[in-house]
TrEMBL record, chain A:
InterPro entries: AAA+_ATPase (IPR003593), ABC_transp_ATP-bind (IPR050319), ABC_transporter-like_ATP-bd (IPR003439), ABC_transporter-like_CS (IPR017871), Oligopep_ABC_C (IPR013563), P-loop_NTPase (IPR027417)
A Pfam family of this chain: ABC_tran
Keywords: ATP-binding, Cell membrane, Membrane, Nucleotide-binding, Transport
Top-level taxon of the source organism: Bacteria
Classification via PROSITE patterns: ABC_TRANSPORTER_1, ABC_TRANSPORTER_2
PANTHER family assigned to the protein according to its UniProt record, in alphabetical order: D,D-DIPEPTIDE TRANSPORT ATP-BINDING PROTEIN DDPF-RELATED (PTHR43776:SF7), TRANSPORT ATP-BINDING PROTEIN (PTHR43776)
Family from the record: Belongs to the ABC transporter superfamily.
Keyword Membrane: yes
Organism this protein belongs to: Comamonas terrae
Molecular functions (GO terms): ATP binding
Annotated protein name in UniProt: ATP-binding cassette domain-containing protein
Residue ranges of every copy of the ABC transporter domain listed in the record: 25-268
């Protein structure tokens, strides 16, 4: 198991091929077979290192399912998720655990994604507990130092280490969640609606932070959102999901300006617009 | 006479740190058939204002000022008389369609409830009217689905059902508190269009609360921008959006990711409003935005800015006379200076 | 404001009554006003007086001392029976919640099965079959506490497993055991504490019921339930003999229930205030 992989130029950081996920619904009647829910019907895309890919779609489009499959929190019915050349769903449990340091997740609800009973230091240090040597920092002091450095990177301070989540606002909690995602120095961050629950001005601060971190650390984002404006602002490329399939993909400002597929057109048309803007 | 007249509405809430002002001296007037937008971020007091209109504030809240519905003063009314008005002459639609409906009652029964309560209709008459209402809001096969439960409907459909409930008795005033925030954008479009139609049909007044500038731009002719419990800018939506006299309004616009008609890639950082919203007890005594505002002066902390009428900028006359009805008012000590190009005091 | 004051009131009242109960039991080890065991037929059925503060029973034993020593039995049964129920129920509930699937089904159906039997009657049956005595009473009451804790643990734990911070922990590669111990358990602790005080009260009642029937604590160890049973035949001669143990049971149960209510109000809003 190699801890660091050198990516050949042009090789993708994340490669998803023909990903499918079907769920069995509970039986409606004893005599008929259980119905099936096709959450994802063969989704393929590639994400290069240092770039952001936006995933846009409404409820039922399969974007949450996609996030869970990419994070290996769920197993696909068919298809593969390759990160740094390794198929995540074919790895043994030990190898998968070791591979998790390369990809982390940020969730939508800043109030539910942090354990209210833990202090910030412990929350942010949690992913470090599962790194084996030689990558794991040794000893409490080293861990605390690393956590403090990460918190400072996201705009918080050393004295926030010993506080509890309820002492922070929504935007600050989201920063803590981002710090937790950064602490193992991952290559990929899967962000599931990370700014949807935040006020506009706070959203702007967090988006700026995410942009800065991407530039400084060479991160890649898989950015899931229903908000076209945010995706357009942050992402280099976007895929539009509808009922489990990719209906269109491309560069956001070109795609939203001249959408080809009728669903994308409906989405763009539905965004409430200010006078003089597209949205 | 305007349908709804609110003046000097002040709401104080008891907190661990004593009594704090959550809403300060809010005033506006709303005619029948008009839509007023309340825009602001968390903690600005827009939801509290809406609850005050309905008389639904928590018991510990201290309210002063005046709320007049068709000339009748609502503040200080007994609970019994308020109950007679709620659902009947004024109704509210809430943000979460998942929790706004009782999961244990059929939707038909819930829509029929205000009819039986306020209009005294019998069961069959109420049922027939409820089916009509459900069909009007776009629930297909309303008669067959009358007895179904909320969990059998999608989020958008549930919100339509709550709108049907709100409209049952033909209220004069409808308050919608973030009615589409929890919904997908295509569903949002449909629900907002539905609200527009119904408002026009019934000549209702609509108070629409949202944090989304686009939603307000497309659905409200008048608007109040709230921050820290105060109205910092108010007027006709078009005028406010064009001039953006108050620094907070300007900050709010700038912080929003937008796409301009040109297909070029937008610049990097979004301009942000420095800092975070302070707790209610920590708001400055003068202007609530003092300290966070890039143009803060010493006077801003001490003195609450008085409302100032802005001159209508010269230009072609606007299409509708309604433009003249709501003056453009801003509460800022320095807005003229800023407009004239004063430098920022805090970079 | 008013909500907090009233919850504080129940909490403090409950705390005072419960402390009184514990104090009585502890005190009885060091000192009692008279003797709970010594029989003195000359001084039988005395009314309350300067020598015997609450009077004497049919055998001349000091009632006040019996009440103090009887508290020991109530507390012992309460603590150990609830301890058994909590330990086993917690473990089963956490296991069911962490593993889901068949494990959860089996554990929950076993709990349902145990619930189907009326607890007190089954405790009576068990002690009647296996012999009367405090130990068997404790075991019987303990067994019927297990499904209560298992159910409540599983329900609360399931809610925690659905939270984003647990998903985040899974995304770090944390094992289910580690998540259960580090995330789930601390977050359901308050629910369990409240339930434990309620079950404690019920255990005291159950012990009193069993002793009343002669199946619980055996003589010469004093027990409130047996005091009630003995006083029953003497209701018209010495009515006070029934009142003292009855009052002791009622106040203990009331105190524990108030404590549980107060704790529930005090612990939950603090969690809710994390918003």
């Amino acid at each position: 198991m190699s801890a660091t992989q050198n990516l050949a130029t042009g090789a993708a950081l994340l490669k998803v091929t023909a990903l499918q996920r079907t769920y069995q619904l509970p039986r409606a009647s004893l005599w008929r077979p259980a119905a099936q829910l096709h959450a994802l019907r063969g989704v393929s895309f590639a994400l290069q290192a240092g770039r952001s890919l936006g995933v846009v779609g409404e409820s039922g489009s399969g974007k949450s399912t996609l996030a869970r499959l990419v994070m290996a929190l769920d197993t696909p019915t068919a298809g593969s998720v390759e990160l740094l050349g390794q198929d995540l769903h074919r790895l043994g449990s030990q190898q998968l655990r070791a591979a998790r340091r390369h990809f982390q997740m940020v969730f939508q609800d800043p109030y539910a994604s942090l354990d209210p009973r833990m202090r910030v230091e412990r929350i942010v240090a949690e992913p470090l507990a599962h790194l084996g040597p030689p990558d794991a920092p040794a000893g409490r002091e080293a861990v605390r130092a690393l956590v403090q450095a990460t918190l400072e990177q996201v705009g918080l301070r050393a004295r926030d280490l010993d506080k509890y989540p309820h002492e922070f606002s929504g935007g600050q909690r989201q920063r803590i969640a981002i710090a937790r995602a950064l602490v193992t120095r991952p290559r990929l961050i899967v962000a599931d609606e990370p700014v949807s629950a935040l006020d506009v001005s706070v959203q702007a601060q967090v988006l700026n932070l995410m942009q800065d971190l991407q530039r400084e650390l060479g991160l890649s984002y898989l950015f899931i959102s229903h908000d076209l404006a945010v995706v357009q602002h942050l992402c280099d490329e976007v895929i539009v999901l509808h009922q489990g399939e990719i209906v269109e993909r491309g560069a956001p400002h070109k795609l939203f300006h001249a959408p080809g597929h009728p669903y994308t057109q409906a989405l763009v048309r539905a965004v409430p617009r200010l006078p003089g803007h597209i949205f | 006479m305007p349908l709804l007249e609110v003046s000097d509405l002040t709401i104080q809430l008891p907190t661990r740190r004593g009594l704090v002002q959550a809403v300060r001296h809010v005033g506006f007037a709303l005619e029948r058939g008009a839509t007023l937008g309340l825009i602001g971020e968390s903690g600005c007091g827009k939801s509290l204002t809406a609850l005050a209109l309905m008389g639904l504030l928590p018991e510990q809240a201290w309210v002063s000022g005046s709320i007049r519905l068709d000339g009748q003063e609502l503040l200080g009314l007994s609970e019994r008389r308020l109950c007679a008005l709620r659902g009947n002459r004024m109704a509210m639609v809430f943000q979460e369609p998942m929790t706004a409906l009782n999961p244990l009652h059929g939707i038909g029964r819930q829509v029929a409830e205000p009819l039986r309560l306020h209009l005294g209709l019998g069961r069959r008459a109420a049922q027939a009217r409820a089916v009509e209402l459900l069909e009007r809001v776009g629930i297909a096969q309303a008669a067959q689905r009358f007895g179904e439960y909320p969990h059998q409907f999608s989020g958008g459909q549930r919100q339509r059902i709550t709108i049907a409930m709100a409209l049952a008795c033909g209220p004069d005033l409808l308050i919608a508190d973030e009615p589409t925030t929890a919904l997908d954008v295509t569903v949002q479009q449909q629900i907002l269009a539905l609200l527009q139609e119904l408002v026009a049909e019934h000549s209702m007044a609509l108070v629409l609360i949202s944090h989304d500038l686009g939603v307000i731009a497309q659905n409200a002719e008048q608007l109040l921008v709230m921050y820290g419990g105060s109205v910092v800018e108010s007027g006709m939506t078009e005028a406010v959006f064009r001039q953006r006299a108050h620094p907070y309004t300007r900050g709010l616009f700038a912080a929003r990711p937008q796409m301009l008609p040109a297909a070029a890639r937008p610049p990097g950082h979004l301009p942000t409003i420095a800092g975070t919203v302070p707790e209610l007890a920590d708001l400055p005594a003068g202007c609530p935005f003092a300290g966070r505002c890039a143009f803060t002066a010493q006077a801003c902390f001490a003195q609450a800015p008085a409302p100032r009428l802005l001159q209508v900028p010269a230009g072609p006359a606007p299409a509708s006379l309604a433009f003249w009805r709501q003056p453009h008012v801003v509460r800022c000590l320095r807005d003229e200076a800023i407009h004239a190009g004063a430098p920022v005091t805090t970079p | 404001m008013s909500v907090r004051l009233s919850s504080h009131r129940s909490f403090w009242l409950g705390a005072v009554l419960t402390s009184l109960l514990i104090a009585c039991a502890l005190l009885s080890f060091a000192w009692t006003p008279g003797s709970a065991y010594e029989m003195n037929m000359d001084a039988a059925l005395q009314p309350p007086g300067s020598r015997h503060w609450l009077g004497t029973d049919a055998f001349g034993r000091d009632v006040a001392s019996q009440i103090l020593v009887g508290a020991r039995a109530s507390i012992a049964v309460g603590l150990i029976a609830v301890g058994i129920g909590l330990a086993a129920g917690l473990a089963l509930g956490l296991l069911a919640s962490a593993r889901r699937g068949w494990t959860e089904e089996i554990i929950m159906r076993l709990a349902d099965f145990t619930f189907a039997f009326p607890a007190l009657l089954s405790a009576i049956m068990l002690t009647a079959v296996f012999g009367a005595g405090m130990v068997n009473a404790i075991i019987a009451i303990g067994i019927f506490n297990i499904p209560t804790f298992a159910r409540i643990t599983r329900a609360s734990a399931n809610a925690i497993w659905a939270r984003d911070y647990v998903t985040a922990a899974r995304a770090c590669g944390k094992s289910r055991t580690a998540i259960t111990l580090q995330h789930v358990l601390p977050n359901i602790a308050s629910v369990l504490i409240v339930q434990a005080t309620i079950q404690f009260a019920l255990a005291i009642l159950a012990e009193a019921a069993l002793s009343y029937l002669g199946l619980g604590t055996q003589p010469p160890q004093p027990s409130w339930g047996r005091m009630l049973s003995e006083a029953q035949t003497l209701m018209f001669q010495a009515p006070l003999l029934a009142i003292w143990p009855g009052l002791a049971i009622a106040l203990s149960v009331l105190g524990l229930n108030l404590l549980g209510d107060g704790l529930r109000d005090l612990l939950d809003p603090r969690l809710a205030r994390t918003r």
